[in-house]
Amino acid sequence: MSLAFPALGLSEALLRAVAQRGYGEPTPIQAAALPPALLGRDLIGCARTGSGKTAAYALAVLQRLEGGARAGAGRTRALVLVPTRELAVQAGEEFRALARHLAVRPRVAVVHGGVSANPQMIGLRGGAEVVVATPGRLLDLLERRALRLDDVALLVLDEADRLLEAGFADELERITRMLPAHRQGLFFSATFPPAVRLLAAALSRDPVQVDVPAPDSAEAPAIAQRALEVDAAQRTRLLHHLVETEHWARVLVFVATRHGSEQVAEALRRAGVAAAAFHGDLAQGARSRVLADFNAGTLRVMLATDIAARGLHVPGLPVVLNFDLPRSAADYTHRIGRTARAGATGLAVSFVSAATEAHFRLIETRQGRRVPRERIAGFEPRDAAVPTVPGGGGVKGRGRSKKDRLREAALRSG
Ligand code: AMP
């Protein structure tokens, strides 16, 4: 199906904004999702970052809200849940840009952790037609009675698989319990493991399923993959060597832990490479600065944890490198998908050691593609295989924070 934007049923005001944003043709997910969503149907869409899903749901929400009641004080009409701050900010910007020609412009509030809650509470006081939120901060604000969800007519779950992987299952359940029964649900996820399917089924009624070609078949061929065998202890040196000899202008490096990302960044800086860590412990301002520098090209190597990199949008990124392997094949696909976006070719490099070889083989099996092992002169591995935990570090099992536990206790007693 290749419908043009005007054929999808969008209002004049939205079509003008779409054109201004430079969107010539709808992406496949937009073409498939918009007609049923505009009719009020629930939707389950298979879509990853880069597919244009944000505009798909933003357009649907804006048009469904058009002409409807304004949100009352401390209330909202549409709730969009996303896994990370960056995604929240990006989605908020998409909403505002697409809403700019509407006769009655909706108020869009973006709430996420890592910054003071007070301005967000003040922003919600008068009500906001659209609230884009990460689940943790949203629950905080709900508990503080800064927002009520009784009037929500539309619920969007964006990157549902990442929401669950980030450990937000409990938060999601608590939030959705506060929603009215009658509402439209738009559900997006890049992958559909059983937990995501269950969640999708629980949150939608008679949904239209929109399947866009899987990332593996549609986009993976544009990404060249390399696997370099190297001992764990030599990885920082090899990374430095590659940055210099392969002349990578920019590389996004995935490291399992915050501490690890700081250590490698520090080592690279000492070697004269513009490098910085990017993880969840950084204040929002610091994170934005690192990302802006990386996007601008003044920062050559960004060392990120998965938590921080979720939903990250880095235009024209040439290389992604797995310093530590991701825990799952889905994460691998997600990580390497950061490069080679919008048809450009990209390179994904993974460091594999004797200890992580079996884990990488599993990733290869899952993605249905073998990656030849290479050795770089001067960095040949010496370690023998040892049975160990895949991934080389704990990132995903992220325990509950003290704050989370306190919050749960408070909820139980209240
Ligand atoms: P997303 O999948 O929402 O992260 O979107 C990926 C990128 O595609 C964003 O930078 C959007 O601005 C852009 N985009 C969304 N829709 C279109 C379209 N129809 N044509 C061209 N670019 C688009």
How would you describe this protein?
- There is one protein chain.
- This protein is α/β, with parallel strands linked by helices and 414 residues long.
- The chain has two domains: 5-211, P-loop containing nucleotide triphosphate hydrolases (Rossmann fold), CATH 3.40.50.300; 222-413, Rossmann fold.
- Helices cover 40% and strands 16% of the residues.
- It has helices spanning 12-20, 28-38, 53-65, 85-98, 117-125, 135-143, 160-165, 169-177, 194-203, 215-218, 235-245, 258-270, 284-296, 306-309, 329-336, 357-367, 402-413; strands at 43-46, 76-81, 108-111, 128-133, 154-157, 184-189, 208-211, 223-229, 251-254, 275-278, 301-304, 319-322, 346-352, 373-374.
- A seven-stranded parallel sheet has the order 3-4-2-5-6-1-7, sandwiched between helices.
- Helix 5 (117-125) links the parallel strand 3 (108-111) and strand 4 (128-133).
- Helix 6 packs across helix 8 (169-177).
- The longest helix is centred in the N-terminal third of the chain and has 14 residues, at 85-98.
- Residues 213-221 and 387-399 have low confidence and may be disordered.
- The structure holds adenosine monophosphate (AMP).
- The site of adenosine monophosphate has 12 residues, from helix 3.
